[in-house]
Amino acid sequence: MVTDILIADQERIFAGVLATRLDDEDDIRVVGEVQLEARRSWQLAGRAADVILLDGDLPGDAANRLCEKLSDGDESPRVIMLSCSSEPERIVKALRSGAAAWVRKDESLEYLLRVIRGVARGESWLPPAETPDIVQLLMSGGERKRKNDLLLAKLTARERAVLACLEDGAAHRDVVAEQLHLSVNTVRTHMRNLMAKLGVHSMLEAVALTRDSASLRLPDWTAASAGVSAITAAPRHARH
Predict the structure, then answer these.
(1) Rounded-to-integer distance, Cα 195 and Cα 173, Å
(2) Residue among 89, 128, 124 at smallest CA distance from 107
(3) Computed from CA positions of residues 194, 199, 205, 211, in that sequence, does the dihedral angle turn out positive or negative?
(4) What are the helix (H) ranges across 184-226?
């Protein structure tokens, strides 16, 4: 059985070299490469792939958000995060976003091939040296996540939208107001109310509660959900 691979990475040369080497395998076919440029939002078109090799070092939380979008269906591709490092905290966030594996970019090609084939069979792969810490974080994070979800459930839809905008990178009240089509005074009121409900003293603390929560989602009606660029994977024969 041939496994179709899509490579999505910030580094064009790295992606090209990796694609060429993977294509040499009889049971692997690279169906496309996508260069993810900095300071943009992305939505990958390429769900026909069996496995996506996704750059885990995208700015902010972009890689995890992409992973969530790509892993939201029964027939979705499986995602392998590629990164220059392997901090347990980052790996845990990737796993909670739907990633099936985490591989450092300086690992051998032979190791990456084992991971790809294992993931294609439905397996999950973690860096062996970090696995004990990852398991511990997953266990301790479960109770914290449950408590945070209960707190976030107290928020109204508008308060959740304000908090989601801030978690998504909006830095100031006027930016949130523009995204949600609200006045700055209304946003200020929502911020004050949600901090009181969550029992925190700053918006930074409030945003921190959302980091491990699956319950906070930006409502579809907000302007902040717009502006996601769709990038279609280029076929291998079109690659230069």
Answers:
(1) 14
(2) 128
(3) negative
(4) 184-198, 203-210
Contacts of 86 (CB under 8 A, 6+ apart): 102, 104, 127, 129, 130
Name the token pair of 208: 């921190």
Residue 10 and residue 35 in contact, taking contact as beta carbons nearer than 8 Å: yes
What residues make up the domain containing 182?
135-225
Residue 37 is assigned to a structural domain of this protein: yes
CATH number at residue 219: 3.40.50.2300
240 lies in some domain: no
Asked whether residue 154 falls in the same domain as residue 115, the answer is: no
26/4 Cα distance (integer angstroms):
11
Reduce the DSSP state of residue 198 to 3 states and report it.
Answer: helix
pTM tops 0.70, yes or no: no
Query: Could you report the per-residue pLDDT of 114-151, keeping only the tens digit for each?
Result: 999 999 999 999 998 898 888 887 776 666 677 777 88
Count of Cβ atoms closer than 10 Å to residue 136 Cβ? 12
Q: What is the 3-state secondary structure (H, E, C) of 125-146?
A: ECCHHHHHHHHHHHHHHHHHHH
